[in-house]
Design goal:
342 residues; Rossmann fold; 11 helices
Amino acid sequence: MRIAIVNDLSLAREVLRRLVMSISGNTVAWIAEDGDEAVTKAATDRPDVILMDLIMPRLNGVEATRQIMRASPCPILVVTATVSGNYAMVIQAMGVGALDAVETPTFGSEGTILNGEKLVARLAKLRAATGNVTRSWMSVTAAPPMQSAGTHPPLVLLGASTGGPDALSVVLSALRSGFPAPILIAQHIAAEFTPGLVQQLALKCALPVRIAREGERPVPGTVLVAASNDHLELTRDCTLRYTPNPQSYPFRPSIDVLFLSCALHWPRPGIGVLLTGMQTDGAEGLLRLRMAGWHTIAQDEATCVVYGMPKAAAEKRAAIEVLPLNLIGPTISANILSAQPR
């Protein structure tokens, strides 16, 4: 992969350059000393990945990420001296399009690189995401639901990736207190950042928002967010569980896994929504939901940070509606309320 490095500290730039060059198949595309320079360089030479610092002069990493994702979208990893110390900015960067965050490696004695394991692992994950991912696990024959549809409300599923935190906030802000359906969310994000995501969403939503727990059942009026490096899925008895399978699938938690399991096991059709994100995770799952009678929605290109996953869904004809972000929440609400007994 061609990897760009953005950092205002020369020592940090050098350790990142050495780490990138130590991995077979990787090269340094270019190096920028601040966010403003990074925006300019990304516009003329788009790399496979950008390693983006947060605290920089002229233009910080959050605003640089925002501008790059608008003009020259590509995968961006936040690499900062302290993730916990810059947690608010990390969450902001993820909201505008960054995929993940790790701490900056350092030099040890005799020039050895310390604390580089997480960054190496994140880069390997991105490399896997750009390759051919086996989808044999999606070819599951639908089994009849175990329970009567009459005992279950419709279910709302939201899937998002790049730019998802802000998009989810907009959708949830349109739902009012007493909303009569459960909501499950799969957002591509490392487990360590999910509590911050939950807090962000809770500030925008009139409904309670919390992390989905192993073994619980979705209940109306509650938003449950997948919070594991494993995948969240619905079981045949309509309880939630986390599963590592498929282990080779790089998108975690997978939207496809959640959507497919609900298409198979939730007894009553609900609403499935695929929001902004790179690659194609969620498109096949959204198609399975539509085939099972669910109302399916994809975010439109104009309002996406990255029109990857919704585009894949539209090309598969998985979405009944393709809508701008500001209309998705009201459409969910109108559809759920119209399904209520009068």
